[in-house]
Amino acid sequence: MTDRRPLLRALYDAAVAAAHPDVVLAPHLRPVPRGRVICLAAGKGAGAMAAAAERHYLDTLGLAPERLVGIATTRHGYGVPTRRIRVVEAGHPVPDEAGLKGAADTLALAAQAGPDDLLLVLLTGGGSANWIAPVEGISFAQKQAVNKALLRSGAPIGEVNTVRKHLSRIKGGRLARAGRNAAEIVTLAISDVPHDEPSAIASGPTVPDPTALADARAIVAKYGLAIDDAVRRALEDDSNESCKPGDAAFARAHFELIARPKQSLDAAVKLAKDAGYETIDLGADLEGEAREVSADHARLALQARAAGKRVAILSGGELTVTVRGNGRGGPNQEYALALAGILKDTPDIAALAGDTDGADGGAGNATDPAGAVIDATTFAKMKAQGLDPQAYLDNNDASAFFEATGDLLLPGPTLTNVNDIRVILVD
């Protein structure tokens, strides 16, 4: 049987390459201002975005080095060498002290922007966790606890960020408020959110926020989150309301998307077609419980197989996992594990599920897997080792399962983030 793993990996790599800062950033950068370029970046691609901005301004445009300053806060292990923009590596998905300091320094630098300066804000997914600036009355530990509870609840990322925004001094438009004296605030973003909603990318630090404190309280109630009294009081304090349309902070603020999940999914779809597959494009905005979405996709694959079709089923978006066990993994590994359980008797189906940032769930380490691959060799190893996919699913322990079969996807940090890419190949 033909090995489909090289093609699966090529499809994943094509999706990542379509959103890399080296490719997408420079065409959108503004001309040199009269004063300084103050670059503030956050997220998993922040280091790469900062380096690309440096090459554009210092090398291509010849900007004097002293006129470029900035801070890029990224995930641990995702830093790259820079010349003028300081790179801070911080915690993700759970914030840490480095992110706390990075956010404080970012707000202070934004406040120094003058009427001749360009405030250049570069955002990728992960910025919400990297920029951590608790509101007055909330300790860092309390904010961390809220983050952990939200991540374990199974709440979609939009709901997670609604709560985060109302407990923050930098999210929900507040960074724009800090930098309101700049000549212009230009935000260039790589989207990692369904439907590319600007206020959701890195929790919208420079755009109006459509959500309110009441929404955040409703989400806490919906998932029965155990929160400290201080957090409860903060969510009832009107002074913690996020910035709304018409706020003076946005008078000279501009927002532009420079890469989005659909572009990356389109790149993978094209490659699959070039490889001779009929394609089923399920869209770049899928949400839902990973194992349930996996079951739906498995049914599609089995229907195509029964009809004798050679099909590639592709999708993007961001799935969730409601954690009930104490294992390791993330939504992409859980999706692949659920597939393995359903498709174990179908040697002519292969699949890959991976996060385009290079890390799927995990402990926040650069060495975390991005997802997993399954095919006939996976099914053979399952049988030989007596591995029960359902038992691993019940414990949310997909990483251990795929360590045993040798099927973890391990690309390392990709320096971008446009959500997940999932491919099922039916031959």
Automatic annotation (TrEMBL):
<dbReference type="Pfam" id="PF13660">
    <property type="entry name" value="DUF4147"/>
</dbReference>
<dbReference type="InterPro" id="IPR038614">
    <property type="entry name" value="GK_N_sf"/>
</dbReference>
<dbReference type="InterPro" id="IPR037035">
    <property type="entry name" value="GK-like_C_sf"/>
</dbReference>
<dbReference type="InterPro" id="IPR007835">
    <property type="entry name" value="MOFRL"/>
</dbReference>
<dbReference type="GO" id="GO:0005737">
    <property type="term" value="C:cytoplasm"/>
</dbReference>
<feature type="domain" description="MOFRL-associated">
    <location>
        <begin position="8"/>
        <end position="236"/>
    </location>
</feature>
<feature type="domain" description="MOFRL">
    <location>
        <begin position="311"/>
        <end position="420"/>
    </location>
</feature>
<keyword id="KW-0670">Pyruvate</keyword>
<dbReference type="InterPro" id="IPR025286">
    <property type="entry name" value="MOFRL_assoc_dom"/>
</dbReference>
<dbReference type="Pfam" id="PF05161">
    <property type="entry name" value="MOFRL"/>
</dbReference>
<protein>
    <submittedName>
        <fullName>Hydroxypyruvate reductase</fullName>
    </submittedName>
</protein>
<dbReference type="GO" id="GO:0008887">
    <property type="term" value="F:glycerate kinase activity"/>
</dbReference>
<dbReference type="InterPro" id="IPR039760">
    <property type="entry name" value="MOFRL_protein"/>
</dbReference>
